[in-house]
Write a structure and sequence with these properties.
The complex is a heterodimer of chains A (88) and B (364). Chain A has one domain: Rieske Iron-sulfur Protein (3-layer Sandwich). Chain A is mainly beta. In chain A, the strands form two sheets. A four-stranded antiparallel β-sheet of chain A has the order 1-2-6-7, with no helix packed on it. A three-stranded antiparallel β-sheet of chain A has the order 3-4-5, with no helix packed on it. Chain B is of the alpha/beta class and 364 residues long. Chain B has one domain: Metal-dependent hydrolases (TIM Barrel). The longest helix of chain B has 22 residues. The chains are: A mainly beta (88), B alpha/beta (364). Chains A and B meet through strand 3 of A and helix 11 of B.
């Protein structure tokens, strides 16, 4: 489960690639083209990488950044009275 | 397209050989060489070393042509091109060089550019004849990208020029580097595809340590065409060359089986190493499928039609262009691959590989 400021997201912890513990991986941003021929770093905190092979996933949608044919299952997160619930 | 059933290559209306070489000699090029090299090379030195000189770098292979076991056929006139076309039942050719396959390794960059220019002059003056199906690729030297771009700009509207020929063998640094962008920009302006062709002997210059193990013509020639183009393709995909330029590339003479392997391997690794190629907006294999074509010769495994049909299906028959490589010693006759394609993948696929796709790629 991931917290982006006030937003919560939940992903399955079984990587769609080969079953690694994706949610235990590093949460970070990612390199992207800066539009002027160089690189920039963007989406800080919105990307989790599976520690087994380094596949990057969008923590909100579960989509693999490199290939949208792969998507980690996501779960609805509800916050009620300060308690966070995951709908599985 | 004819509705008539095609039972043999000769029955096709359109047969395009996408790799038909000329064999330009020193005597052909010298009259077209610009100054200062026209004067600098105007000597009376008798080349008494003869064919023995080809045994020494680069790359000094003892080949079946040198030993007389294979015929080193001459193609130095349009009449000689037509002899080959008649032999192979083709009716259009994209003429590509022989000596200038090594142009990318010429040490003197200004001389390299001048040699490319001279080749194009000779080709246009004596060879190309679109009415007779004789088209050609404009050779440029990667050593001087600005001069190459000017050469492309000058040739773009010449009758019969249907592609840019980038001699890719041994070219260092690899062809995804930004320094080559002027070449791609010019090709894009000219709306010409870029043909990339390795020369096996050039690996001597770029992979000297690897080459220590390649001490025979066979051990070098079999792997290095695919190796060279995997290296260039890796570089170009990683740096986003096909994303940044709306042009087609035609990779020549590396066989077919490595293509399904390479694209799947590259996609596989890209999924885990996407930050190395952030310019890409789709899978690497999609760029290959959309913007890269591969000429067929030498089709490996023709004795095993199941293998050939599988590889062509896996690489995508729409990416394959028939080529002969005639008159080089490992040339393919047009009949072999046609039989496999027609019987296993159907007549439409065979027609496409043998010419219909080339009509679109080269725009003729």
């Amino acid at each position: 489960m991931f917290r982006l400021n006030e937003e919560f997201c939940a992903l399955a912890n079984h990587c769609v690639h080969q079953g690694g513990p994706v949610c235990e991986g590093q949460v970070s941003g990612t390199l992207a083209p800066d539009g002027e021929g160089g690189l920039c770093y963007e989406r800080e905190g919105e990307v989790v990488s599976c520690p087994w092979h380094g596949w990057e996933f969008d923590v909100r949608t579960g989509e693999a950044l490199a290939d949208r044919n792969y998507r980690q299952p996501t779960y609805e997160v509800v916050v009620e009275d300060g308690t966070v619930y995951v709908e599985a | 397209m004819s509705e008539q059933t095609a039972r043999a290559v000769a029955d096709l209306d359109v047969v395009v050989d996408c790799d038909a070489h000329v064999t330009e000699h020193q005597d052909d090029l010298l009259p077209y060489l610009d100054e200062p090299f026209a004067s600098a090379l105007a000597t009376d030195v008798d080349d008494s070393y003869g064919y023995i000189s080809s045994f020494y770098p680069s790359a000094g292979f003892l080949t079946p042509v040198n030993t007389g076991k294979a015929e080193g056929k001459s193609v130095r006139s349009s009449a000689e091109v037509r002899e080959g076309m008649a032999l192979l039942d083709t009716n259009r050719v994209v003429l590509t060089p022989t000596q200038n396959l090594y142009l990318g390794c010429v040490q003197h960059p200004e001389l390299a550019a001048a040699l490319g220019h001279a080749y194009n002059e000779w080709l246009l003056d004596t060879m190309l004849d679109p009415d007779e199906g004789l088209y050609g690729a404009c050779v440029v030297a990667p050593q001087r990208p600005a001069a190459a771009a000017a050469e492309i700009d000058d040739r773009a509207d010449e009758d019969g020029i249907c592609a840019v020929f980038l001699p890719s063998g041994g070219v260092t640094p690899l062809l995804g580097k930004r320094q080559y962008d002027p070449i791609y920009e010019a090709a894009e302006r000219a709306d010409l595809p870029v043909m990339m062709h390795n020369a096996a002997g050039t690996m001597l210059l770029s992979f000297p340590n690897l080459f220590q193990g390649f001490d025979r013509y066979l051990s070098s020639h079999a792997p290095v065409h695919a190796m060279q183009h995997m290296a260039h393709l890796s570089s170009m995909l990683t740096k986003g060359t096909p994303e940044r330029f709306d042009i087609d590339f035609i990779i020549q003479e590396a066989g077919i089986g490595w293509i399904p392997y390479f694209t799947r391997r590259f996609d596989h690794e890209y999924r885990a190493k996407r930050e190395d190629a952030p310019m890409l907006e789709k899978l690497p294999s999609e760029y290959v499928s959309d913007q890269f074509y591969f000429t067929s010769q030498p089709v490996e495994g023709t004795g095993d039609p199941d293998y050939v049909a599988s590889m062509v299906e896996l690489m995508g028959p729409e990416s394959l262009l028939f080529s002969s490589d005639y008159p080089h010693l490992d040339f393919d006759h047009s009949a072999d691959l046609f039989r496999v394609l027609r019987s296993r993948l159907g007549e439409t696929a065979a027609r496409n590989v043998y010419g219909e796709t080339a009509l679109e790629v080269f725009g003729f």
